Amino acid sequence: MGDTRILSEVIKKVYEKNITNKTGNVAQYIPELAKVDPEPFGIAVATVNKDIITVGDVEKKFTIQSISKTFIFGLALDLIGPEKVFQHVGAEPSGEAFNAIELDPVKNVPYNPMVNAGALSMSSLIYDKYGNSSEQVILDFFENLCGEKLSINQQVYESELNTAHRNRALAHLMNGAGIINGKVDEKVALYTKQCSIEINAKELAIMASTLANFGTNPYTGKSVFGPITARYILSVMFTCGMYDYAGRWAVDVGLPAKSGVSGGLMAVVNRQIGIGLYSPRLDNSGNSIRATKACVHLAEELGLHAFEFTNKGSSMLDFYI
Ligand code: GLN
How many angstroms is it from 29 CA to the middle of ligand 1? Predict the structure, then answer.
């Protein structure tokens, strides 16, 4: 544990720069999400040395949504193995919206595990292995990622399941293509449940720090997934985590990241820190506007871009703490 004063000041400055930004709208297509308070804004940074720096509404719970895809991809890799996983999903950016109803026309698999099609395919693999126990396997895994007890927001789950027509369409498309092997309704339900797990920005930052720390939660010391799995996850986050904004994000921020439609955003500085942010107003790609801008500013202030020429970010703990 170190002196976090400089880092705290930077994070506070970035928070203040963005709190006044009220552009964008909360997600509308899931009725329960359309009702959430748009105002909360929180930034949390968790270092691999167990320092946590927070500002704003970092205790406010929200559903993890698509950020879960990142970890379920990792869980599938660890439990089922890369060979089988990559028979069921690609690792190419789609350049399309997260809920696009399409498969890679050449390989006939979902483009990547960060879009809905690929995530449904990964949840299907978990279901094929664990059946009715899958929900518990997933919940235990997420609890280990952040070292906290978690639960599913039942209202959001039911609200999304009742309106999950596109996800059902995708699952049936994949069932027809031989990627999903039956039990379509159960698998869509499992995927929707994993998206409805509630977390806060602080827990999200710790989950991200577990990725920064090669799969071992720095706070509990528990190995949650292997280092090679961490490398797979971070690579796909880097190229596909921000959907059809992934390319510009790589230019402006240059960090592996994953967003969710409830307004959560997670970014990772390899070997250094995990960043968890929450602010529900979204842009047209379904990414939180304040959280995205805050990451641009954090990357600028702290030199976090993967290709930063000063190389501050890659040894930022020595630099700032
Ligand atoms: N549960 C949401 C869905 O399937 C997740 C989408 C997202 O967060 N981008 O549409």
Answer: 10
